[in-house]
Amino acid sequence: MSWDINKLWEQDKAHFVHPFTDFSVFQEEGCDIITESNGEYVFDGKGNKYLDGIAGLWCVNIGHGRKEMGQVMAEQAEKMAYYSPFNNLSNVPATQLAAKLAELAPSNLNHVFYSCGGSVANDTTIRIVHYYFNQLGKQDKKIIISRNNGYHGTTYVSATLTGIESNNWGFDTAHQFVHHVKEANCYRRPAGMTEAEYCDYLVEDFENSISELGGEEKVAAFIAEPIMGAGGVLVAPEGYHRRMYEVCKKYGMLFISDEVVTAFGRLGHFFASEDVFGVQPDIINCAKGLTSGYIPLGATLLSDEIYEVISKPQREGAVFSTGFTYSGHPVACAAALKNIEIMEREGICQNVRDVGPYLEQQLATLKDLPIVGDVRGSHFMMCIESVADKDTKELLPLEANVGKRIAEQCQKRGLIVRPIAHLNVLSPPLIWTRETVDQVVGILRQSILATVESLIEDGLYQPQA
């Protein structure tokens, strides 16, 4: 198939409203249009080939262009593309996938509510949490605690849960029942504080916030990513999640684990909450890697205890009145089943456990570069933080746009990484090998050095003596 790439570029600018668009440059620069993908590579309309360092957007876990995925989706579409999930009707793939997710998830998460993506899964979860406490006669128990710099989506409630301040500039939020506490940022913890002391500090802040907000009578749940994604790939101190869970149980709160990014192998397990962090949440939300991004699908996994409450009729003639036209879409669920089958058959989680530590080690070698302040993350979820001064951790000026500069230098050399202000994130397909890691780290080193030169030339960075 051939395209007039210049015509597409103009049409894209004229008609496609992109997520997170920088309108200060969009009309001039437009977008690079990706036209093909295969394995760990993507190709643009000008014939350039790139290593995909971000797996689309944290999601193409099994790699691009898997024929099995296309085939199973086509077969399901021919057999039955869609039928209503309402009115006591179901379909085969949705039923089979729900059973499979219950098998893979922590032991008491046996009930699945389907949506179309991570934002909607998180939004739906809050509606279910409020309904759950209403059913228990606790109508005042509504407050949800999230974290500064946590990312949970951009639908109305999920955007409110998101604690990245710039995400909501100019937008309204449902702030009346959402409260944010300090994020766990070990790199920027208070000076002189050990990680263990920092963990104590964060847990104490959390418990104090619960008390100030009305305690057990008012606070319903805590939502957290096992590792914070778009907020900077922040890894909490050891034991943090377990202790936050214990505080939740002390105050009769639900613990919601937002595994939209971390589930389906990114940390080497199908779900990270229990296997990596030792926590059995009351609710897990997932999307992205559930289908490896081949088709939209989200899921909210509910505990037996929650289901027992919400599955009882609230009043005569009433139903559990939440859901979507595409809940449990047959084609999406068939894709998810095939995706999980591929992951199990090819040992993709094991590959992440084998190659992930090597990726961490090799990326850490970049710390010798003058602007690299921190390299952090776990397995196939990593971040490089650039700074002006390594000792003080002072940031470069905003106009330096250092994350974008590094990403552009990487793209010139055949690698796509994600810029987020002064950060660069890697969340690659889970099929990377050690050889790929070596290639990527080499490109990053060259690109960061080229960025340093450009910053000096532009008078935006002065090397330390």
From TrEMBL:
Identify the keywords attached in UniProt to this record, alphabetized: Aminotransferase, Pyridoxal phosphate, Transferase
Q: Does the keyword Transferase apply?
A: yes
Q: What is the lineage of its organism?
A: Bacteria, Pseudomonadati, Pseudomonadota, Gammaproteobacteria, Oceanospirillales
Q: Name one Pfam family in it.
A: Aminotran_3
Q: Which domain of life is it from?
A: Bacteria
* Entry similarity comment: Belongs to the class-III pyridoxal-phosphate-dependent aminotransferase family.
NCBIfam families hit by this protein: PRK07036.1
Q: What is this protein called?
A: Aspartate aminotransferase family protein
- Asked if the record carries the keyword Transferase, the reply is yes
**PANTHER family, sorted:** AMINOTRANSFERASE, AMINOTRANSFERASE CLASS-III
What cofactors are annotated for this protein? pyridoxal 5'-phosphate
Molecular function (GO) terms for this protein are: pyridoxal phosphate binding; transaminase activity
